[in-house]
Amino acid sequence: MTQLAPLPKVVLGSLAFGVFWMLAVFPSVPFLPIGRTAGALLGAVLMIVFHVINADDAYASIDLPILGLLFATMVVGGYLKGAGMFKHLGALLAWRSQGGRDLLCRVCVVTALASALFTNDTCCVVLTEFVLELAAERNLPAKPFLLALATSANIGSSATPIGNPQNLVIAFNSKITFLQFFFGILPAMLAGMGVNTVMLLCMYWKELDGASPDEVAAVKEMEAVEEGRSPAATAAVLALANINKSPAAVHGAAGLRLRRNGDGDDGEEESVMSENISTKHRWFMQCSEQRRKLFLKSFAYVVTVGMLVAYMLGLNMSWTAITTAIALVVVDFRDAEACLDKVSYSLLVFFSGMFVTVSGFNKTGLPGAIWNFMAPYAKINHVSGVTVLSLIILLLSNLASNVPTVLLMGDEVAASAATISASAVTRSWLLLAWVSTVAGNLSLLGSAANLIVCEQARRAQRNAHDLSFWSHVVFGVPSTLIVTAIGIPLIGKINI
C-alpha cells in the first residue's frame, strides 16, 4: 500500500509538478514565457533541487525505449514521406471527396486504423503536416482536422498491444496474447471511433463547408501573385524547362543549326557530336537516378512492412524501429544529416523532462493515495465499481500520464479482480488499457499524441495552427467521457 511521503516532500513535489503543468498548458505565460520544452526541464530540475527525487532515480526514470521509438519513427516517417507514401494516402483521402465533412470522416477512420499498427505517436508525427496541407488545399479550418487526428489516433491505438506504450506494459504484465488483446478491445474501438467522428461533425458542421473550387483557385492565384509570379507564367516556365530538358529537343536544336549553316564545317560537326554525347550522358544519369529512387521507395515500403511484422512477432519495438531507421539511412547511401535535421529534438527533450517530473510526483505518494482511498469502491464486478475505477484511471492518467498510471495501478487492479474470477482479471487489464488510452483525449497533456500534433502543427510550414489547451478541452472532455462510457460495456465481449 502506497504511503504519503513526508509533508515537505509532498508540498515541494506538488509545487514542482504544478510549475511543469502550468508551463505545459500555458507555454507563454507573461511572467515566465519559456515554452513547454524548457518548462518540462524546469519541472525536472525543481524535483531534484527540492530533493523529491535524487539524480540517479531521475536519470533512471527517463524512458529510453519510448524516446528511441519516437526518434526512430520520426526518421522512418521522413523516409516514407520521401517515398511518397503519404501522397498516396492523400490521394486516397481526397479521392471523390464530397467536401470537408467527408474528408473529416476519412481522416478519423484512416488515422484510427493506422494507429493500431503504426502506434499513435508515429501516425501523429507523420500525418499532422499532411492533414494540414489537405485542409489548406480545400480552404478548410485546421482545428477540426487536428482534433480528429489526435483523438482518433488515441482511440485507434487502444486496439493492439503495439498501439501505444501503456498497452505494451499491460500486454507484458498480463501475458495476454496479441489476438486476445485485439479482439477484446476491437468492438469498443470501433464504436468509440464512430461516436467520436459523429461528435466532431456535430460540433464543427458549419465550419466544414469550406470553399467552392473557384474560390480555392482564386486563393492559389493570389498566393502565386504574392510570391512574385503568376500561375500562367509559372506554367510557361515549367513547360519551357521540360522542353529544353528533353533529348529530342536537344537533337532538334542541333539539326536546326546544321540546316541553317548548310553542311557545316568539321568543328561544328564535332561540336554537335560532343553535344549529343553529353545529352546521352545526362539522359543515362537521369535514368540511373530514377531507378535509384524507385529502389529506395520500394525498400522503404518493404522494411516498414517488416517492422510491423516484427512488432506482431513480439520483438522489441524500440530497437526494431531504430534498426529500420538505420537500414534506410545505410541503403540511402548519402549523408543522413538532412533527414536527421527533420527530427524534433525539442520534443524528445520535452518528454525527458516530463518523465523526471512525473516520476518525482509519483514519489510524493499522492497518486497512490488516491487509489488507496478509492480501491474499496472500485470492484470490477459491479457497475458502480467499474464507474469508480474508470474515473480514477481518467483522473490519474491526466495528472501523472497514462504509462505511470498503468504501472501504478495494474497489479492492484488485477489483484482485486483475481478475487472474483480469472476472466475478470483479463477484463480488468483490458479495461485499464481502454480507459487509460481514451483518457488521453481529455486534455492536451493527456497523451504524447496530443502534444505531438500540437507541436507539429505549430511548426508546420503551411497552414500552421496553434492548438491551444482550451480549444482541445472544449471537445476533449465530452468526447472522452462519452466514448469511454460507450466502450466499457463492449470490453471483452469477443473471447479468443
From TrEMBL:
Top-rank lineage group of the source organism: Eukaryota
Keywords: Cell membrane, Membrane, Transmembrane, Transmembrane helix, Transport
GO CC entries: plasma membrane
InterPro entries named among the record's database cross-references: Cit_transptr-like_dom
Subcellular localization(s) per the UniProt record: Cell membrane
Topology of this chain in the membrane: Multi-pass membrane protein
Transmembrane segments: 6-26, 33-53, 59-82, 181-205, 299-331, 343-361, 382-400, 431-453, 473-492
Domain Citrate transporter-like: residue ranges: 28-439
Record protein name field: Citrate transporter-like domain-containing protein
